[in-house]
Design a protein that fits this description.
A hairpin with a 2-residue loop joins β11 and β12. The model has no long low-confidence stretch (mean pLDDT about 95). The protein has a seven-stranded mixed β-sheet with strand order 4-10-9-8-7-5-6, with helices on both faces. Strands 1-2-3-13 form a four-stranded mixed β-sheet. By secondary structure, the chain is of the alpha/beta class. It has two domains: about 170 residues, Aspartate Aminotransferase, domain 1 (Alpha-Beta Complex); about 260 residues, 3-Layer(aba) Sandwich (Aspartate Aminotransferase, domain 2), CATH 3.40.640.10. It has 13 helices and 14 strands. About 35% of the residues lie in helices and about 15% in strands. The protein is globular and about 55 Å long.
Length: about 425
């Protein structure tokens, strides 16, 4: 296949031993096929055919510091020489926990795990234990992991959504236990009136609201003015917990996460991806009154939780993020702002209907004539996703790697030269499309 004969060969081989040839269904979405990669450094990634790409996928977001950051790799190498897994405690996990408590507004205590999916489950369990209730509210288009009780209304087609005032609770996979569907209520995001109406009817039954503080998984849509504040107020009024899923936004939107950026403090928050510089780690952080329930009968376990490698990587990544008074965030904002502004200017000059949404460190491109999108329904009803997929393939063919669903991640390794090359490629692809 064109530029990727070796990847095509490896993919065929993989299908003989790996189910579907991949180890995550998200990777099946890659067009024109799931590529195989051999190395990556800084802002660049190289495939099995020797093609190099400016990378805006960044491991689906974790590589805020770029690929193979030398400080992170050195810290891991040094730490793992002393052991990898103790089935006991070690000083590094205290070091990292203390940093999280210092940085994150809601973090009074922490617990570590390996994935965002796991810490989301721990957060929901805590909320149920704290309130004695079972139901939680989630929003259309948000992603909180692949487990049955949360893989709901993540990316359903428009005709499956149901009425706006009372959306369908839509499973996202064959084999999901339908008994879990009754555990949650679903509403469109950024519509505080509908949330208020739900709580006026069912507030005494709701244990928690869980939300991405910026809807990164679909559209990089920012919260409407007052929306997160409204959720906070409703939780306080009805005795529910506010859970912010910061697996993507944590450290990507700033040292204090999205809760610091938007000025709303949840009761619990989940972190992952960018916190460990590309290594697997995740954290549940929150107010002590709830986190102490882990001492009082709420179970959270995991053989590999707080392993030496993950904690060393996280300690090194957090140190790097805070260095020179967190100067890297100025660089991230500058790079992302240049990309967003440049893409908008090219779209205007070429007459292509493009909408750029989000924030400089995580933004989204849509082919659409509308000027504003506020929720998942607006995204799928107004945007030409197939055209974006063709655009992404065109960019890939010319050496720029993008996620098919439209979100762009930037890293500290991206430079003005990368931006210049990327914008030249954007214009070339748009003019040929």
């Amino acid at each position: 296949m064109g530029n990727w004969p070796r990847s095509e060969e490896l993919y065929r081989r993989a299908r003989n031993s790996l189910a579907a040839g991949v180890s995550s269904n998200v990777r099946l979405l890659a067009k024109p096929l799931p590529l195989f990669f051999e190395r990556a450094d800084g802002a660049m990634i190289y495939d099995a055919d020797g093609n190099g790409y400016i990378d805006y996928v960044l491991g689906q977001g974790p590589l805020l510091l770029g690929h193979s950051h030398p400080n992170v790799l050195a810290a891991v190498e040094q730490a793992m020489g002393r052991g990898q897994l103790f089935a006991g405690q070690h000083k590094l996990e205290i070091t990292v926990a203390e940093e999280l408590v210092k940085l994150i507004p809601c973090a009074e205590l922490c617990r570590f795990s390996l994935s965002g999916s796991e810490v989301v489950q721990a957060a929901i369990r805590l909320a149920r234990a704290a309130t004695g209730r079972t139901k939680f509210l989630r929003f259309e288009g948000h992603y909180h992991g692949w487990f049955d009780n949360v893989l709901i209304s993540v990316a359903p087609p428009l005709e499956k959504l149901g009425p706006r005032q009372c959306p369908n609770v839509a499973p996202s996979s064959q084999g999901q236990a339908h008994s879990t569907l009754s555990e949650c209520a679903v509403l469109p995001w950024n519509d505080l009136t509908l949330v208020e109406e739900l709580f006026s009817k069912e507030g005494s039954d709701i244990a928690a609201i869980i939300t991405e503080p910026m809807m990164c998984n679909n559209g990089a849509i920012k919260p409407a003015p007052g929306f997160l504040q409204g959720l906070r107020k409703l939780c306080d009024e009805y005795g529910a917990l506010l859970i912010m899923d910061e697996v993507i936004t944590g450290f990507r939107l700033g040292l204090k996460g999205a809760q610091g950026r938007f000025g709303v403090t949840p009761d619990l928050a989940t972190f992952g991806k960018a916190m460990a510089g590309g290594f697997p780690n995740a954290a549940l952080v929150g107010k002590a009154v709830y986190m102490r329930l882990f001492e009082e009968g709420v179970n959270h376990s995991g053989t590999f939780n707080s392993n030496v490698i993950s904690m060393a990587a996280t300690a090194a990544a957090l140190e790097q993020l805070q260095s020179d008074e967190a100067a890297i965030y100025g660089h991230l904002e500058s790079i992302g702002t240049s990309l967003m502004a440049g893409i908008r200017e090219i779209a205007q000059r070429t007459g292509v209907p493009l909408l750029v949404t989000g924030l400089p460190t995580a933004f989204h491109l849509s082919f659409t004539d509308v000027e504003k999108i506020e929720d998942y329904r607006g995204l799928i009803s107004n945007c030409d996703q197939k055209r974006y997929e063709r655009f992404a393939v065109g960019m890939l063919e010319r050496g720029v790697r993008l996620l098919e669903r439209g979100i762009w991640y930037v890293s500290t390794a991206h430079t003005d030269t990368h931006v210049e090359k990327t914008l030249e490629t954007v214009e070339e692809v748009l003019r040929e499309a």
